[in-house]
Amino acid sequence: MTAQRLTGSVAAPGRAWTVRFALVWLGLWAAQLAPVQLLLPLQLADVDPVHKVRDFGLVNGLAGVAALVALPVFGALCDRTRSRWGRRRVWVAGGVVVYVVGLLLTGLASGWPTVAVAWLVAQLGMYAAMAGLTATIADQVPPEHRGAVSAAVYGPQALGIVVGLGLVTALGGASGIGIGYAALAVVLAVTAVPWLLRAREAAPEAGERPRSLADALRAMWTAPRRSRDYAWAFGGRLLVNLGNALGTTYLLYFLTDDLKVADPEGSLLVLTLIYLAATVAATWGGGVLSDRTGRRRVFVAGAAVLQAFACAALVAVPSWPSALIAGVLLGAGYGAYTSVDQALVTQVLPDLETVAGDLGVMNVAVVAPQALAPLLASLVIAQLGGYGVLFGLAGAITVLGALSVARIRGVP
């Protein structure tokens, strides 16, 4: 990729492009987060009620380990791809197809090992689609507009949770697990089609692609050594996403086993709606304000600290009212963080020829914490003192993420 295409000489994408881009992310997030928040816990509680916490951690842990390899490698392959449909779009299309198949297989699984394998297939599809979509921002969006467009990635995240949870709950929740996975597969396919049909990208020139896959992989793994800002951005993203995942992954079990609310599934939906409202407002607001001011780090670090306050509320007073307050703080903090952070990382990429590969490494810091947090959280809950310790750990990790972002020097 040429420096010109990354420094803002291309026109900002239109509103229709941004809407289609947001729509495909809506489907991806719904298919990702509704199973993690509800379907997988219910399914594993049904097939192995005694070991449901352990099984949930193992299923997600397997996907997290796979992300460590798949995301960077898929990104490197995406940079090297040449096809009549473009190098980014072909990875999005292939990823969506694999994701749909994986969701259907997960719905048919009858034991935790088969659930783990089927969910791994689904996650590999997610990783492939992410490789193409995140690289598109660096390819086609000028830096001064990346905050707003990055909001189209993470603004739909909270909405995707609500759409997914609402749909699954309406279809029967625990009594309709297989139908729930199938419905999410349909949502994913329908939301991806408009972007796939209308996406256009220029064929890369000879100097815009790594000379070989080996060169792409080598550049990807040496990127943190070649750019200190890239390394600090990776560390901040990893820590903040891990803290957020630790604070949200076991909410259903927290409501059921610790707060003992009368309707855990309904209460989870209420919390998610509150989280949605705060996240969407902060995502779009943070992205637009960051673009207008030209500042990234202060928004990212401040939003990370706001998430830490949410965790502190749950530690200090573990109650339903505290959970509602934490939902607002966590949603606002995570919303502002995600949109601005995505814009920030596209501005610290060290190699203009390996955009998808370098972003693939950055995507590890988004996906791996979501997948590995259930395993870590299950150990904390079982061995270190329960949910209070878990939320305290989540807040501390998030603050460390804010400190990492503060060390970046090349982006204001």
Shape descriptor? globular
CATH class: Mainly Alpha
Give the terminus-to-terminus CA distance.
24 Å
Low-confidence regions: 1-9
CATH second-level architecture: Up-down Bundle
Report on the structure:
- Residues 1-9 have low confidence and may be disordered.
- The protein has one domain: MFS general substrate transporter like domains (Growth Hormone, Chain: A, Up-down Bundle).
- The protein has helices at 3-6, 15-47, 52-80, 87-108, 112-140, 146-170, 177-198, 213-226, 228-248, 251-258, 264-293, 297-316, 320-346, 355-383, 387-406.
- 81% of the residues lie in helices and 0% in strands.
- The chain contains 15 helices and no strands.
- It is mainly α.
Overview features:
mainly alpha; globular; Growth Hormone, Chain: A; 412 residues; disordered N terminus; 0% strand
Condensed summary:
By secondary structure, the chain is mainly α. The chain contains 15 helices and no strands.
